Amino acid sequence: MAPLKFCANISWLFTELPDFSQRILAAAAAGFQAVEAAWLYDSDLQELQRVRKATGVEVVLINTPPGDIKAGDLGLAAVPGREAEFREGLDLSLKYARALDCKRIHLMAGRVPVDSDRATVAKEMEAVFVQNLKYAADILSKEGITGLIEPINTRITDPGYFLDSPHQASAILEKVGKPNMKLQMPSTLFQDIFHWQIMDGNLTQNIQKYIPVIGHVQIAQVPSRNEPDSAGELSYSYLFDTLENIGYQGYIGCEYKPQGSTDEGLGWIKEYWAHRKC
Description:
Helix content: 25-40%
Strand order of the largest sheet: 1-2-3-4-5-6-7-8
Largest sheet: 8 strands, parallel, barrel
Order of helices and strands: EHEHEHEHEHEHHEHEH
Number of helices: 9
Oligomer: single chain
Distance between the termini: 12 Å
Low-confidence stretches: 188-192
């Protein structure tokens, strides 16, 4: 049975260091062979390329730009009237993905517009989301890139986020009908394991049900979003066994808030690596 593959989310881990290039170096020193990140777009692309090549660390996932965070944006793919901005952001994501040889892009859905009722705008937002995902899928397929959508829990993390359950995400992927468009399981395709447990529970059944459309997994403890072995609702040793048993071969992103320094909180993964002799 092949061991699971983990990547450090350097938007959450190694934040003791100021820039992403330094965080890639730190991740490599800690034993990671891969990293992921949310938004790298303020970083020098040539320096990121240099560090990636020097370390041999794979960049496995980046997000599309969020839009105007100060104005309340968190992605644009499902936001009516912002289609042109979404496409501009997709172009920027592709520029970085090509340069870093990154094969997965998370296409962030975005939030329900302020002062709008979710139920009232749901159909319009879904239609925009499906249209934008079809557009993106065709472009990404030419680059050999997988597009991902991630449900984010609306109970704790982001009450306004449009995509909030694996069931909703699966139905949208079915309407998109593109083989290179997949589900990101939380912290994330399993929506994040973190988000899935909060919104729906039934993690084992959901993993088994949605494994055919899962393209990426992210992990964090519930409800604290700290290290997987911190106190909380989830038994990650059980979940890792489940993922191994069903033959999951993608990456697992470590998208959590360290309780102390990042290095101090890596005991759980070093134990896994030692046990599996990764």
